């Protein structure tokens, strides 16, 4: 942090943050991709206050809270297909850890056990959080490579990127044939395929070819491998549907949710299983088939109250339906950047947008990382009143879903001007 400019927030309102030194900043990355309805939304605030008058926390180990039960029922209703049984935790990484252990234990306890299924297939560029199991799945060298000596090794799939793909191939076919080969070769050992759907956020808004998710679902069925989908970033409206899986009519066997679950208010995550997974764990206590996993703050009622209020807001408004229109508006405003010699790609789905800066557009070569282009662009945006945070040289635009068209214009202008300013200074 030796060259760090601290920004300390005193309060916030809607999509705007007020810092202790009196600046007002537009929250251009939804407080790290989780804020949905804006800050200090009256309905979510009231739900938390109301819950506080009843109980702040009880355990879900051996008992439960009424509000948490209501949330579990609501999640079963709003998630795709027959996803129905929720294990609660406090952050996205923990939701993924639970999914890994659940998938592993499932193959030991299903009516036709296959205990040799102990491995996972993860994508190139995968990001599933920063705990050790989640980092083992991770495929971002810069974040993950250092820890290799303490990690397990997944079977590594391709980075299904539509920007860096050989020119003469059909991207979907190209990546799918690699997935097919890996599943063909390894399905006997594979407990699950774990993937982020449509967009791999932390990898730099890597955007998949349309149809990949549903095709991987078919491969998982064909080769009898569980499918774990990590919607920690894409869930709750971000891509223009409540869940990204809905774009391709996919129901994973296990779904991981986090970030936007509470509207971005409180730490809560969920690992949601379909009945065939749940049933493998359902037995009298003496059979010891229960899921051997628990967290002190699982299902915290204050967080559950926020989550219920957030889901009700989706029911009461056309927020999800508005995302496509807002995304088109933002894309249109940013599209002029495609003429800039250092803007290689603008990608993403819905209000999950990445702008990749490159040294050479023809060869798609990045700048030397010591130049800190992404970071400098984001600093310039802060000077213009917009808080954004880069992923190396990919500028992320990921505003709260409630952002207005005018606010999206402010975000776009700041990003465009900052890119021009920083790159004009480059030799
Ligand atoms: C942020 C993120 C996680 C990790 O969530 P935390 O709450 O930070 O632990 C996992 N998966 C994806 C896809 C994410 O974007």
UniProtKB/TrEMBL annotation:
Presence of keyword S-adenosyl-L-methionine: yes
Pathway membership: Cofactor biosynthesis; biotin biosynthesis; 7,8-diaminononanoate from 8-amino-7-oxononanoate (SAM route): step 1/1
EC numbers on record: 2.6.1.62
Molecular function per GO: adenosylmethionine-8-amino-7-oxononanoate transaminase activity; pyridoxal phosphate binding
GO cellular component: cytoplasm
Enzyme class, first EC level, given as a word: transferase
NCBIfam families registered for this protein in UniProt: bioA
Protein name as it appears in the record: Adenosylmethionine-8-amino-7-oxononanoate aminotransferase
Taxonomic lineage of the native organism: Bacteria, Pseudomonadati, Planctomycetota, Planctomycetia, Pirellulales
Designated gene of the protein: bioK
